[in-house]
Amino acid sequence: MNEGLLPFGPGAWVVIGLYVASLLVLGWIGYRARAEDSLRDFYLAGRGFGFLVLVLTLYATQYSGNTLLGFTGKTYRIGYAWVMSLHFMTAIIVFYLLFAPQLYRLARARGFITPTDYLNHRFRSPGLNVIASLVMVVALSNYLLAQLMALGRAMEGLSGADPFKAYLFGVIFLALIMGIYESMGGLRAVAWTDAIQGGILFTGFFVLLWLVFDHFGSLGESTARLLDADGLLQGADAAKAKALPPPAARCREWFSYILIVGIGGALYPQAIQRIYAARSGRSLRLSLGVMAFLPLTTTLVALIVGVTAAAHVPGLEGAASDRVLMVVCRQIQAGSLFGYWLVVILFAGVLAAIMSTADSALLSISSMLTKDIYAQFIKPSAGQAELTRLGKRTSWALLAVLVLLAILLRETTLMRLLDRKFDLLVQLAPGFILGIHWRGLRAGPTLAGLVVGLIIAVGLVVCGYSRLYDIHPGLWGVAANLIVAAGGSVLLGKRLENA
Q1: 436-485 pLDDT, tens digit each
Q2: What is the CATH number of the domain that holds 336?
Q3: Between 41 and 280, where is the model more confident?
Q4: End-to-end CA distance of the chain
Q5: 395 and 443 share a domain?
Q6: Virtual CA dihedral for 279, 282, 288, 291, nearest 10 degrees?
Q7: Of the ranges 9-13, 34-38, 287-291, 299-303, which one carries the lowest mean pLDDT score?
Q8: Of 32, 49, 273, 293, which residue is 20 to 30 A from 129 by alpha carbon distance?
Q9: 288 conformational bin, left if phi > 0, alpha if psi -120 to 50, beta if neither
Q10: Are both 415 and 480 inside the same structural domain?
């Protein structure tokens, strides 16, 4: 895949190195700016995020390695049908608006730190708290794993070194940098780096779009090339299908993706903690309003690049297709010195997207393991400084395990990891979204529904059903979950009224 393509030279790596070094500087500044050694300061940055920082950190967290590498790879494999990504990324904002404003008011009044602090306030059920925490930890660990793999893919695609060695370097070295600045400054450092990374990412998407059109021609020309695929060396029928309307099965999958990503994405633990960290309700509402339009600047660009690559760079299959963005970039580099340096800027945006999402996931996982598991069940007497130190150590231990898994699972596609994460997260929807609006939802049925939903979702996957009638297993699970939680709450309420 690397043959005949131009690797980065020393000057480009100096630029990338300076960018990475700036993240460490921000981590140090965040450490110096801390007000106290407490969970509230480390994990919520003192609840001081204004509009600009909040929208940039939400943007940098939501658009990740999956968007740049996974979405481009998915479009490369299936073509225009992946336009569904525009809809499900917008759906995330719709579901945010169903519960985020109310959740923010409660968090401000009650001092919530982790997502399950809300569940504890609402239901007073230790069992529900533990299972919800474990679901979030497992789902986010999956997500963090995908980001580490994306770091390796990015380095593998643009380095002139042996692909496997480049992948190892990308995963290990950049994970080390991320762990250092996150441990130093907590969410404050993460948000400040997100603000810079969000700006670089936003610029990088527009640079990418201009480079692709300049080098390969318009989207219309690429579409015509796919439709006239007989001239391609192989896979003519498959290439044509990428430019045609999707079949009925793909449309059902479209509907499934919109729901599962819309609901699951709104329940990201790191996003919920950013809701807690907002300076005011107005800042939160303005940030979500801006976020509703950002899929047009991100997922749409990934879609265009994927279609263009399908027309001009045939032959990539499986996990190799997740590297197609890097192949396209290196072809652009070979065209001119100007293109070379623009790709350097773009690559900084790729790193920004991946690292900003990964550091947020790592921070959320450590907060839940520390506060919701250790402090709740192992050592309730632990002080704030002790818990903060434990949270940092937990981050490093988890990072070591996931780096090893990223190396072992190198050939797994990013989208496969994405699907499994949302199958789990959507099971929390009744407790968070329904529970915040309906006081009649009760703890016992909500816990039972969560367990039933998880059993169905995981069971279908274990039995080999990555889709059942083209619908994600998580949606079958959450449907049963909702029936048990809502139906059980109604029945229990009537029983108590008649008692």
Answers
A1: 999 999 999 999 999 999 999 999 998 988 888 889 999 999 999 999 99
A2: 1.20.1730.10
A3: 280
A4: 72
A5: no
A6: -90
A7: 34-38
A8: 49
A9: alpha
A10: no
Closest residue by Cα to residue 309 from 419, 393, 225, 376:
225
Percent helix, strand and coil across the chain, each to the nearest 5: 80, 0, 15
Please give the Cα distance from 332 to 64 (Å, whole number).
22
- Give residue 451's identity as a one-letter amino acid code: V
Measured over the CA atoms of residue 31, residue 35, residue 36 and residue 42, the dihedral's sign is: negative
Looking at residue 5, what is its pLDDT? Answer: 36
User: In this structure, are 262 and 313 located in the same domain?
Assistant: yes
Q: Which structural domain, as residue segments, surrounds residue 162?
A: 10-422
In angstroms, the CA 257 to CA 253 distance is 6
Q: Do residues 209 and 352 share a domain?
A: yes
Do 315 and 170 lie in one domain? The reply is yes
| Backbone φ/ψ region at 259: left (φ over 0), alpha (ψ -120 to 50), beta | alpha
H helix or E strand, kind and range, residue 157: helix 126-158
What is the pLDDT, as a whole number, of residue 35? 65
Task: Read off the pLDDT band of 1 (50, 70, 90).
Answer: very low
Residue 471's φ and ψ, nearest 5 degrees, are -110, 135
Residues with Cβ within 8 Å of residue 233, at least 6 apart in sequence: 314, 315
Distances (CA, A) of 64 to 149, 167, 184, 194: 12, 18, 23, 11
pLDDT of residue 419: 66
Is 378 in the same domain as 259? yes
Mean pLDDT of 485-490: 94
**Tokens at residue 91, please?**
């759906």
Q: What's the average model confidence in pLDDT over 53-60?
A: 80
Length of the chain: 499
Q: What does the alpha-carbon distance between residue 494 and residue 5 come to, in Å, rounded to a whole number? A: 70
Give the pTM.
0.81
Q: How far is CA 224 from the centre of its chain?
A: 33
| pLDDT, tens only, 377-424 | 888 888 877 888 888 888 888 888 888 988 887 766 555 656 678 899
Tell me, what amino acid is at 272? I
Three-class DSSP category at 38: coil
Sign of the alpha-carbon dihedral angle for 254, 258, 264, 270: positive
Q: What is the rounded CA–CA span in Å between residue 436 and residue 458? A: 26
Q: Residue holding tokens 């690292």?
A: 355
